[in-house]
Amino acid sequence: MKFDIQRDHLLNGVNDVLKAVSSKTTMPILTGIKLDASKEGLTLTGSDADITIQVFIPTEKDGEELIHVQQAGSIVLQARMFNEIVRKLPTKDVEIEVVEGYQTRIRSGKSDFHLIGQDAAEYPMTPDVTNDHQFTLAADLLKQIIRETVFAVSASESRPVLTGVNWQIKEEGLICVATDSHRLARRRVALDSLPTNVPSVAIPGKSLNELSKVLPDDQTGVDVYLNNQQVVFKTNDLVFYSRLLEGNYPDTSRLIPEEYQTNITLNGKELLQAIDRASLLARSDRNNVVRLSIVNNETIEISSNSPEIGKVEEQIPVSSFSGDDLRISFSSKFMMDALKAIDGQEVVIQFTGAMRPFILRSVHDDAILQLILPVRTY
To answer: pLDDT digit string (tens) for 154-212?
Structure first.
């Protein structure tokens, strides 16, 4: 194998696939990055067996030559060391050549590295996805869906399926739900030409976070392939594989109330900032508890107190109010996460009682729903 490549393109590709490489693996070869050079370009692969990321760098893009492949071939190089070497090479041009055995020579300017590689034939094969259920999302929409749901997955491994986001395809479109049993985040997406008979799947939150880091911030189409064992996200130059979580995701639809006793509409950004300030005093409390009280038809009060530190009270105007008066306590972190997902828009908060779950939605868009369980403070 022998090729010349521009350092920046190689470094960007290595940085992306490195996100899937773990030093804690039972398969030593997975501490490496696989390089496959062909006349079409260079494919880089990183994996930890749960997540696999492939990046393709074409020989030419927009009329500019990125790679010149003199001899096709494959090699696996130690990931962290290869990344460090590429990052610190002195010039923008890099030559990589596999010489005797798996010895790999990396040259740039006056630097000449020799790395001991491994046989690429020992690297696990990536699964075939061509026959799976397939649909397409824009990359920026997919990143938005992840941002609006993944924060609510469970951090506890006691129920592994809750460490993922549940994706379901129904008549109304794609429905993505995350819950840790204390809060819930749901995002609906209306899509054309959705596949039928698609299994309900739980995608690990960790996988979605890593996917979000490597996707572009534009309208690039991402093909999504689903089966019972894995999900694959594919663009022209990126393929992201993730295993799915085993187990049945609970039916969360019954958690969402159908009737409400109290409705408040107000500025989401103002509420977020007020809760952020109140949480300064709430941090000494185990649950970071903040209270919301209805003062009158035009105002609510956000407050918190700590016996050791002091207390804070702040009043916020509401755009509209209907229903019963209320005083409710909740985790400031959960509330702030929910408001950030709604992204500073005008929000409506709907309550069914002081100790019942309450709902947050955007006034302008009911695609996003956030549910939070209140905290008992007496």
So the answer is: 998 889 999 999 999 988 889 999 999 999 999 999 987 777 778 789 999 999 999 99
Per-residue tokens: 136 = 């397409």
Q: Is 12 helix (H, G, I), strand (E, B) or coil?
A: helix
Number of Cβ within a 10 Å radius of residue 307: 8
pLDDT-derived band at 365, boundaries 50, 70, 90: confident
> Is residue 163 within 8 Å of residue 155, measured between CB atoms?
yes
C-alpha–C-alpha distance, residues 201 and 246, integer Å: 9
Query: By the 8 A CB rule, do 323 and 285 touch?
Result: no
> What distance in Å separates the CA atoms of residue 54 and residue 223, rounded to the nearest whole number?
14
CB 206, CB 157: distance < 8 Å = no
Phi, then psi, of 19 in degrees rounded to 5: -65, -20
- Give the Cα separation of 197 and 185 in Å (integer): 24
Cα→Cα distances 199→25, 169, 244, 291, Å: 29, 8, 11, 41
CA separation, residue 117 to residues 17, 24, 114, 331 (Å): 17, 19, 9, 51
Helix (H) or strand (E) holding 82: helix 79-88
d(CA 15, CA 32): 13
CB 68 within 8 A of CB 3: yes
Return d(Cα 31, Cα 312) in angstroms, integer: 51
Whether the predicted model's global pTM rises above the 0.85 cut:
yes
Neighbouring residues of 109: CB distance < 8 A, sequence distance ≥ 6: 89, 90, 91
**Residue 287 in this model has a pLDDT that exceeds 80:** no
pLDDT digits (tens, 9 = 90+) for 114-151: 999 999 999 999 887 766 788 999 999 999 999 999 99
pLDDT at 378 over 60: no
Asked if 166 and 202 count as a contact pair (C-beta separation under 8 A), the reply is: yes
pLDDT-based confidence at residue 52 (cuts at 50, 70, 90): very high
**Which residues in 139-237 belong to E strands, given as ranges?**
164-170, 173-179, 183-189, 201-204, 221-226, 230-234
